[in-house]
Design brief:
single chain; five-stranded parallel β-sheet; 41% helix
């Protein structure tokens, strides 16, 4: 039996504050709620889920680099690093895995500095503005990409 695909879900700075940080923008769900949603969808799709959060850019870069060894795809909500981190872009490019960028809020309806994403330059797709459901859609997209690659 083939090993099930493994998806790395990374969450950047301040996402540990979900549920209390600006709920009018990010909603009332906590990061634990988002993780539970991802684990449930992962189980439904037959995916192994590795769900992590860090406020530290270097730690995110290290996790992205390590994903090359044993992950099938990366879902990334890089938080504010989306708009500033060339280091994360370089790491995503180096690992050569499908990347889906996720944002809880619609970054294009927010401040102009949020309209630019370094992550998008490495991502196969971007989902924003759909709250935690965006993670579910991103997992479904990653599943399709990984299974299509396995069949080719």
């Amino acid at each position: 039996m083939a090993q099930q695909p493994s998806i790395l879900i990374l969450n950047g700075p301040n996402l540990n504050m979900l549920g209390t940080r600006e709920p009018h923008i990010y909603g009332a769900e906590t990061l634990a709620d988002v993780e539970a949603l991802c684990r449930a969808e992962g189980a439904r799709l037959g995916l192994e889920i590795d769900f992590r959060q860090s406020n530290h850019e270097g730690e995110l870069v290290t996790w992205i680099q390590q994903a090359r060894e044993n992950r099938s795809a990366i879902l990334l909500n890089a938080g504010a690093y989306t708009h500033t981190s060339v280091a994360i872009l370089d790491a995503l490019t180096a690992v050569d895995l499908p990347v889906i960028e996720v944002h809880l809020s619609n970054i294009f309806r927010r401040e102009p500095f949020r309209h630019h994403s370094y992550v998008s330059m490495a991502a196969r797709g971007v989902i924003c503005g759909l709250g935690s459901h965006g993670y579910v859609l991103a997992l479904q997209a990653a599943d399709r990409l990984v299974r299509a690659k396995a069949q080719s």
